[in-house]
TrEMBL record, chains A, B:
It comes from Candidatus Uhrbacteria bacterium RIFCSPHIGHO2_02_FULL_53_13. This is Recombination protein RecR. One of its GO terms (biological process) is DNA recombination. May play a role in DNA repair. It seems to be involved in an RecBC-independent recombinational process of DNA repair. It may act with RecF and RecO. HAMAP family: RecR. InterPro entries: DNA_Rcmb_RecR, Rcmb_RecR, TOPRIM_dom, TOPRIM_RecR. The keyword Magnesium does not apply.
Length: 198, 198
């Protein structure tokens, strides 16, 4: 590849750090920015700097926050008896958008021995501490239905046996708007055995 | 969509300005950055700031540069008799990588009356000035083979009639590694009529 002026090359190589962005897309991003009003670049620069400076991890639930304790944890209207355990901070937004109104605990990932993600790398200890201190009656293990997610659900459900809490997981079934024809056997099997009364 | 902490929301909305990046991808980018070492964000912020501060348009060929006159225009080893006219600054890199060693003129776009891109919006006047001043013997019109590119080639070739320069365009033909079966009729027709002696 030809060398572009240095400031362009620098940003191109940094943009390739983003997930799914290769050199060609990164070049496209940078040249697109160069065609925008200069204020766009300045605003993006200061937004990154602010992300760097202002975002911390919530002391309680471990999601991203601008305060030591996040908005969700400080929200008195939330149901303290329901605790939803998720892998990533972004899952908090996804579940909130779906209407969940309990509280969260962000594990920081899912178990994956191959990638070296063992229980001690995750926020398991802090979860157990919370369960001892908070009036939680149900723990929802809201992980992706993949190998890592299933392993994490298995592991956590064992850890939670000694607590007097109900332990649940998200239902598997047909996604809204999907087609029977393209559903995999496991999903369809679950959708049949857990069928709803109409 | 749920509100994330403000610094996250701000950067998400700025990332959606990038071509091909929707809200979901932008969220993915920001949460990915949050998982990286903090230095990545700071470096990206300063790279954007430097792009904002340091990149200008070359006085001669109108490509992006960190100097008033770009490296390519100051390079004494380049063939001054060959002038390649391109739509965008990034085309300069693309053609250089393919081995072109003449000089460039960046038009700043291709003609598109529908989008309001008329000749006066492009660097046409500065091209004609250069042709009067520089020892150019051949002008290569290196535009995309699409409607706008073809319109620009037509328009420029008329403007260049009064100059004693050879006016050429890039060859159409089968891309390397492609399959006859998927070639369109125009491309294949050109590839036949302009076939090479082996």
């Amino acid at each position: 590849m030809r060398q572009y002026p240095k400031p362009i090359e620098t940003l191109v190589s940094l943009f390739t750090y983003l997930p799914g962005v290769g050199p060609k897309t990164a070049v496209r991003f940078v040249f697109y920015l160069l065609k925008q009003p200069k204020s766009t670049m300045a605003r993006m620069a200061s937004a990154l700097q602010e992300l760097h400076d202002a975002v911390v991890t919530c002391d309680v639930c471990k999601t991203y926050s601008t305060e030591p304790v996040c908005d969700t944890c400080r929200d008195g209207k939330r149901d303290k008896s329901l605790l939803c355990v998720v892998a990533q901070p972004r899952d908090v937004g996804t579940l909130d958008a779906a209407g969940f109104s309990g509280r969260y605990h962000v594990l920081g990932g899912a178990l994956s021995p191959i990638e070296g993600i063992t229980p001690d790398k995750l926020e398991v200890a802090s979860l157990l501490v919370r369960l001892r201190q908070e009036p939680v009656r149900e723990v929802i293990l809201a992980f992706n239905p993949d190998i890592e997610g299933e392993a994490t659900i298995m592991y956590l459900s064992k850890q939670l046996q000694s607590f007097s809490v109900r332990v649940t997981r998200l239902a598997r079934g047909l996604p809204a708007g999907s087609d029977l024809e393209f559903a995999d056997e496991v999903t369809l099997g679950d959708a049949i055995s857990r069928r709803w009364e109409i």
